[in-house]
Amino acid sequence: MESIKLLFYFILGGIVVSLTTYFGSENKGVLAAFIAMFPSVTVLTLSMIYLETGIRPVLSYIRGLLLLTPAWILYLICLVYIAPRHGFWPALASGVVLYLVFAGLIVFGF
């Protein structure tokens, strides 16, 4: 049963990434973002955590998502401002580093 669940997660993730990539490459950024941000993965994750362990771990996961949202927003802002000036790869690398730094501050309280 565990391997079936993992296969389902893998397929769902692949569908989300494939559809997001397809619509993004067709210059339909809002639709691609909608698919990527649609809570299908979160709904599945929350449901599976709940079925496996109950409500407390679900609430802990949701709190974690809320705490890390500011770091995610900084990552996106970094991409928006750096990509036009310095290119995609430097913007992506800078955004990931910025995310890791701020997420580290949030999670580990440095």
Automatic annotation (TrEMBL):
Membrane-crossing segments per the record: 7-24, 30-51, 58-82, 88-108
Name of this protein: DUF3147 domain-containing protein
UniProt keyword Transmembrane helix present: yes
Organism: Methanothermobacter tenebrarum
Organism superkingdom: Archaea
Keywords of this entry: Membrane, Transmembrane, Transmembrane helix
